[in-house]
Specification:
Shape: elongated
Strand content: 25-35%
CATH topology of the largest domain: Elongation Factor Tu (Ef-tu), domain 3
Number of helices: 5
Helix content: 25-40%
Length: 400
């Protein structure tokens, strides 16, 4: 029994040792080759070459295309609010009403003054007619010396006084008419209207409040289209000039004519493209950025001022760029490397210099040639000088 148990234990130890030896050799391609095993399978992708569009993104803030502060033109007590807060209002819609009674009384008063002044004009004109008749009657009599010369002088003086009275009365009428017009205008100002089509904000005054010309009652923002502000770095600004000048060579606005994409806060792509409206006059020296304003259509008023988003645009066109999948690139101590499989199926580790990322690929600026094959799967077997069995896969092209 003891001898049989020892024999079984020895067989188990021998079998385990053989399994460990076999497993250790399987992970080493050179050992596999020496043992007559086939080279390990790896997946490779061909280095691609094509034109790509490089995009940039900027953090953006949404604002109304026009933001109108609604303020009264006259002082008085609010008696009515005619809009629902947060709703769409049209230009000319009455939003608030101020008590019109004091202004109606002022209008009635100046209208009465106007009527009085008009009566004075009629009276002065009648006096002028009489004075003119006296002058016409006494002139030939004075020349014939039928009456004293002083009588004619008195008539002439009376006529001049009547003419002055008529002029003064007419001036008073003009002033009264202006007062009536101002009073009518003030009365109309008791109805506070929206200046633009847009979304009306929360009211900042309540019914019964005494408001003045400095009071802000609410704000109305035009949101279709909506304006988007974003800071563009100086480097992006210089690159974007080359893109924009192709659309309008006489303009200095970057990205002019280039469609902008808006990425909302939840990561969704806004379905409507925008365009650049203008840029600030200078680069902010404290941040190295220049402020850019863009406009986006906003049917249904879905977007609202104050939201944050990202603006994306093409800022560079790269011709005949070499691209490899991201899976082909490894980093070792800050150096980017790829495993190239040659025509003899041997692996060669090469250092590469990378450019921008395009979707799921890297642009390679140095270290590879078009048509070479790089390992994208089975990287554990991609040791320098190892012989492998490559299987060509089609790389997924990044979004352009």
């Amino acid at each position: 029994m003891l001898r049989s148990h020892r024999l079984r234990s020895g067989l188990l130890l021998l079998t385990g040792g053989l399994l460990l030896a076999t497993g250790g050799c399987g992970g080493n391609p050179k050992v596999n080759a020496q043992a007559g095993m086939p080279p390990p399978m790896v997946q490779v992708a061909a280095v691609d070459r094509r034109d790509v569009s490089l995009t940039s993104e900027w953090i953006a803030t949404l604002d109304g295309y026009v933001n109108a502060e609604i303020q009264p033109h006259v002082s008085g007590y609010l008696i009515r609010q005619n809009y629902r807060e947060g709703s769409l209002v049209r230009k000319g819609d009455v939003l608030f009403e101020i008590d019109p009674r004091p202004f109606q009384a002022s209008l009635d008063q100046v209208k009465g003054q106007l009527a009085q002044n008009q009566a004075q004009v009629v009276q002065a004109q009648a006096q002028l007619v009489k004075a003119s008749q006296d002058v016409a009657r006494d002139t030939p009599l004075a020349e014939a010396r039928a009456i004293a010369r002083s009588q004619l002088d008195n008539d002439l003086q009376a006529k001049a006084g009547a003419e002055a009275a008529v002029a003064a009365a007419r001036a008073a009428v003009t002033a009264a008419e202006a007062s009536v017009e101002q009073a009518e205008l003030n009365l109309s100002f008791t109805k506070i209207v929206s200046l633009v089509d847009g979304i009306a904000g929360i009211a900042k005054a309540q019914i019964g409040d005494l408001v003045s010309t400095t009071s802000v009652l609410t704000s109305v923002s035009q949101v279709d289209p909506i304006k988007v502000y974003f800071p563009m770095s100086e480097q992006d600004y210089l690159r974007a000039q080359k893109i924009g000048t192709r659309a309008a060579s006489i303009q200095s606005t970057p990205l002019l004519g280039v469609a902008l994409t808006l990425v909302l806060a939840d990561g969704t792509i806004y379905p409507h493209a925008g365009e650049v409206l203008w840029t600030d006059r200078q680069v902010d020296p404290s941040t190295g950025t220049i402020r850019v304003a863009a406009g986006f259509p906003n049917p249904g008023n879905i977007l609202r001022p104050g939201e944050y988003a990202r603006v994306r645009a093409v800022t560079e066109e790269r011709h005949d760029a070499l691209l490899v999948p991201q899976a082909a690139v490894t980093e070792l101590q800050g150096v980017n490397q790829v495993a190239v499989v040659g025509g003899d199926n041997k692996v060669k580790i090469q250092n590469v210099q990378l450019g921008s990322q395009v979707g799921g690929e890297w642009i390679v600026s140095q270290g590879l040639e078009f048509g070479e094959h790089v390992v994208v799967g089975g990287m554990q077997y991609a040791r320098d000088g190892a012989v492998v069995s490559p299987s060509l896969v089609t790389a997924t092209k990044g979004a352009q």
